[in-house]
Design goal:
The complex is a heterodimer.
Chain A: H1 2-16, E1 41-47, E2 50-51, E3 57-64, H2 81-84, E4 87-91, E5 103-111, E6 118-119, E7 123-127, E8 142-146, E9 150-151, E10 153-154, H3 186-210, H4 214-237, H5 244-258, H6 268-277, H7 282-300, H8 308-322
Parallel strand pairs in A: 2-10
Antiparallel strand pairs in A: 1-3, 3-5, 4-5, 6-9, 7-8
Helix pairs in contact in A: 4-5, 4-8, 5-7, 5-8, 6-7, 7-8
Chain B: H1 2-11, H2 23-38, H3 43-62, H4 68-80, H5 84-97, H6 102-114, H7 122-127, H8 135-139, H9 143-167, H10 170-202, E1 205-208, E2 236-243, E3 246-250, E4 256-260, E5 264-267
Antiparallel strand pairs in B: 1-2, 1-5, 2-3, 3-4
Helix pairs in contact in B: 1-9, 1-10, 2-3, 3-4, 4-5, 4-6, 5-6, 5-10, 9-10
Classes of the chains: A alpha+beta, B alpha+beta.
Chain lengths: 326, 268
């Protein structure tokens, strides 16, 4: 009887002071926050539900119908994988006031990714003292209530305006390049390199033409004397009253220039001697001597057998033979 | 005759083509270049213009119009577009055609300085280009100007020789002969330098385009890396061969390995 009285007294005390609920250790779920009550309700709300990737949601858990609100521990949400996977979790501010039999817990949740779309459901275990605890099922009086998942939306971050960075342009690239003198056509290089020797050789050639050497000068003189003599003889041939003496003077002038004789001769013998001194060959000397003798005959004979015209022909033949013409 | 041979060497480069031959492309390229310059206060806005200009200049170049101005503009636009690898590739293309152009060399040296070589490590030693300057390089006088000097010396020498012949003066002939000899010697030196430069720029080469390219010991990603570090964009490579989409290459420092062909641009 004494024992029954004590139990009745204990229940009476428990009925007047809710906080004195004894929660059995056996059968407790993990985690367990020390809540006890009958018909415990848990609610969750989040504010705001639309946020930026770096925004924070204030998440509030409200637990009602507790018989021991003072003994209820703050649930550690960071120990719940479903929440800690998607959110960084910090404790929020304590509520200003809590109704009787109610606990309110605030958290600050920061989404870890922009792809997070909801705050998952939260399961809250509590002990219902009105339920029996059979030995074979010690967790029977431990019940669970769940919150509903809360959909959130994370807006794309607004890109900050890109900083305007000027482009550094080196001096050599400050203008489009244009063709330069370095792009000379190949033929110009060839011409420039070939020009000095070609010009020098050309200069030498021109100088040589303008300043002939001794042998060449003699040939030119001979040629010039022969042309002058033949021209004069043709002129005499056109004159019907030509003097044989003029023909002789023409030939003498030619011979003097042709063989570079010093002065004019006076007689055929004089000519022969001078030609030999000038180095003329025997045949040439003989031809000249023969012509002069025939000219003397034509000039001085009382009744000349040869006319002046025949003498002119002989003179021209002599000049041409001496110039090597057939 | 050496001066003539020198000229032959200098003349073997591609003949300049008047840009007017590609009037539309050329005008569009220059217009894009100028648009980029006008927008230079904002690099993000300017760069697309330079990309466009570079593509147009490259189109002109690839049609066979090997102009010095096009080579310079092509490389400059690539650099201004922020593409260091292709800029080096295009400068080398230009130098392959015009190995003595001073502006191309200055531009290449400038862009090479922009390559992000690591300061330490094996890549820092192996990848940085090493140039062995010749006496002509040290003179820093463009080769074509020296060629004109040689031609001028030759002209003076031949003039003196001709005067010596007119006046039959042996001393003058010796003097003229010495000048011609000097011209011939200078021409021979220029010939040698020209050959050296052509060989330098015409060897098969490639430039790394993608930063972080590995040099491997074989032609597959499964082969180990030859160097610990990765090659930055703009590293110049001597091409030794090719197999299965990979290039067998040698770095300036002598390291030999393989790189994927799609991560480099060949200088062709």
């Amino acid at each position: 009887m004494t024992g029954n009285r004590f139990l009745v007294l204990l229940l009476a005390v428990a009925g007047t002071a809710h906080a004195e609920v004894v929660i059995p250790v056996i059968g407790q779920p993990s985690p367990f926050y020390g809540a006890a009550g009958k018909g415990v309700k848990v609610g969750a709300r989040a504010e705001p539900v639309e946020l930026t990737p770096d925004g924070v949601v204030v998440y509030t858990l409200q637990i009602q119908n507790l018989v021991n609100p003072a003994d209820v521990q703050r649930p550690d949400l960071s120990a719940i994988d479903a929440l800690s996977r998607d959110f960084q979790i910090e404790d929020g501010p304590a509520p200003a006031a809590e109704p009787d039999g109610t606990r309110i817990f605030n958290y600050r949740l920061r989404p870890r990714r922009a792809s997070v779309t909801a705050i998952p459901a939260f399961t809250f275990p509590y002990y219902d003292p009105s339920l029996p605890q059979p030995p074979d099922k010690p967790d029977f009086p431990f019940r669970k209530v769940r919150t509903e998942p809360i959909t959130i939306r994370i807006r794309k971050a607004v890109q900050p305006p890109a900083a305007v960075v000027p482009l550094e342009v080196p001096d050599f690239a400050a203008e489009p390049a244009r063709s330069t003198s370095a792009e000379l056509p190949p033929w110009l290089w060839w011409a420039a390199a070939a020009a000095p020797p070609v010009l020098a050789l050309g200069w030498c050639g021109i100088w040589h033409m303008l300043n002939p050497g001794g042998a060449r000068l003699r040939r030119r003189r001979r040629s010039r004397a022969a042309r002058a003599a033949i021209r004069t003889l043709h002129s005499l041939a056109r004159n019907p009253r030509s003097d044989p003496g003029t023909v002789v003077w023409c030939v003498a002038g030619y011979l003097a220039e042709r063989f570079e004789l010093p002065g004019l001769f006076r007689t055929p013998d004089d000519l022969t001697r001078r030609l030999r001194e000038a180095g003329a060959d025997v045949d040439t000397v003989a031809q000249c001597e023969a012509f002069l003798k025939s000219a003397d005959v034509a000039r001085f004979a009382p009744a000349p057998e040869r006319s002046a015209d025949a003498l002119i022909v002989d003179a021209e033949q002599l000049v041409r033979r001496l110039e090597g013409e057939p | 005759m050496i001066p003539l041979a020198l000229v032959a060497a200098m003349a073997t480069g591609p003949s300049p083509v008047d840009q007017a031959g590609n009037g539309d492309l050329s005008a569009a390229a220059e217009s894009a270049y100028r648009a980029g310059l006008d927008a230079r206060t904002d690099a993000a806005r300017a760069r697309p213009h330079f990309v466009r200009a570079a593509e147009l200049y490259e189109a002109i170049w690839e049609q066979g119009n090997y102009s010095l101005a096009i080579a310079r503009n092509m490389a400059q636009c690539r650099f201004l577009a922020g593409d260091v690898g292709r800029s080096i590739r295009d400068y080398r293309r230009g130098l392959r055609a015009f190995p003595h152009d001073g502006d191309l060399r200055v531009g290449l040296a400038f862009v090479r300085e922009q390559v992000a070589y690591p300061l330490v490590g094996d890549v820092a030693d192996a990848a940085r280009p090493k140039d062995n300057p010749s006496p002509f390089d040290r003179l820093r006088i463009p080769l074509h100007r020296l060629a004109w000097v040689a031609i001028g010396l030759s002209a003076v020498g031949w003039f003196v020789l001709a005067r010596a012949w007119f006046t039959a003066r042996g001393g003058l002939a010796l003097f003229g002969g010495a000048i011609v000899f000097a011209a011939v010697a200078l021409g021979a030196g220029l010939w040698w330098e020209d050959s050296r430069q052509r060989a330098r720029w015409t060897q098969p080469a490639a430039v790394v385009l993608a930063p972080g390219t590995d040099l491997r010991t074989g032609n597959s990603d499964e082969y180990p890396k030859r160097l610990d570090g990765r090659l930055p964009a703009g590293v110049e490579l001597k091409v030794l061969g090719e197999r299965g989409g990979w290039l067998h290459v040698e770095l300036a420092g002598g390291a030999v390995g393989w790189v994927p062909k799609d991560r480099v641009a060949e200088v062709n």
